[in-house]
Amino acid sequence: MVMDTLQVRLSPGLVERIDDLVGTGIYANRSDAIRDAVRRLILGNLVGIIPNKGDTVKEIREMRKRLSKDVKSFKDVEEINKLIG
Asked: What pLDDT does 27 receive?
């Protein structure tokens, strides 16, 4: 999968925290940590607008799977939003 490259400026304290997470083995590298943070931000914004169709845990897992595998741009996020809206 080809990914876009973004330049993000972070404070030294945030970079240090990210490096701590990488150092403990939670993430393989800085990029993995930041990607996970962005996924969590997007998913967090969906909480409360996800229709309750019964198995919420299954719905959230499916969304996480799509976010981690299918999202290549914000247009992809808009498409996901259409599916749940």
From this structure: 92
